[in-house]
Write a structure and sequence with these properties.
This protein has 231 residues and is mainly alpha-helical. The chain is globular, with a radius of gyration of 27 Å. Helix 2 packs across helix 6 and helix 2 packs across helix 9. It comes from Lentiprolixibacter aurantiacus. Keywords: Signal. This is Lipoprotein.
Length: 231
């Protein structure tokens, strides 16, 4: 009888151990799947945070410029008045744009773009033209994400997600508005929404071809905002 009880007890203990092992294995499997899912959804969380930070500072800069120039009949007239004021206006524009410049530089760092490269191409590491580079990169990344979601929706037969055609319309708008505001065409690779270090460097070099100071970039951003319907 004692031997039978010991055998039953031993069998029960073995089953309990097996169940524990199985539960632990399932837990690890679940965590692995979760990590893999998170990696697919957020391939670079630091870059996403940098994009959001840039977008926020750009919005604040745009709002400040809109309030400052809102009484002007056009960006052209505003530009004439700005140039008359000279250095004082330049300092005011620098104060408005500086946070977006810093945010753009931090965004570029997530692509491996060094401060020395920026200085070599633009002359200084806090050149105001970095705001325009940041717009290109952030908009392109957002467009790429939209394209990915649109592709997934199509293959899941969620065609109603695409009925308003916002992807095509929106992506065309920002590139056209960049052409209007800056006078250079958006890089063709940006339409694909897959920004790499090489493409980011190409954007910097493209913007470097435009000689714009703080006032010039402020006017370009204001013109871009007008084209995009910010005001």
């Amino acid at each position: 009888m004692m031997e039978m009880k010991m055998e039953v007890y031993g069998t029960g203990l073995t089953k309990m151990n097996l169940m524990k092992i199985l539960l632990v294995a399932l837990s690890f499997f679940s965590l692995a799947c979760e990590d893999e899912s998170d990696t697919r959804e957020y391939p670079d969380i630091n870059r996403e945070l940098a994009i959001r930070d840039f977008e926020e500072t750009l919005k604040e800069a745009g709002e400040s410029l809109g309030a400052l120039m809102g009484s002007q009949s056009s960006a052209l007239n505003a530009g004439k008045n700005l140039k008359k004021e000279g250095k004082e206006w330049g300092q005011q524009m620098q104060g408005i744009l500086q946070p977006a410049v810093v945010a753009s530089r931090k965004l570029l760092e997530t692509y491996g773009i060094s401060e020395s490269f920026i200085t070599r191409e633009l002359g200084v590491s806090d050149d105001p033209r970095l705001v325009l580079v940041g717009i290109w990169i952030a908009k392109s990344e957002r467009q790429g994400l939209q394209a990915q979601h649109a592709y997934q929706a199509q293959h899941a037969d969620f065609s109603f997600f695409l009925q308003d055609n916002t992807l095509i319309g929106g992506s065309q708008d920002w590139m056209d508005c960049m052409l209007v505001a800056v006078g250079v065409d958006a890089i063709i690779e940006f339409a694909k929404g897959n920004v790499t270090e090489a493409i980011a460097k190409k954007a910097i070099r493209k913007i470097a071809s435009r000689t714009l100071g703080w006032v010039g970039v402020a006017l370009a951003l204001y013109e871009y905002g007008n084209c995009m319907g910010w005001y």
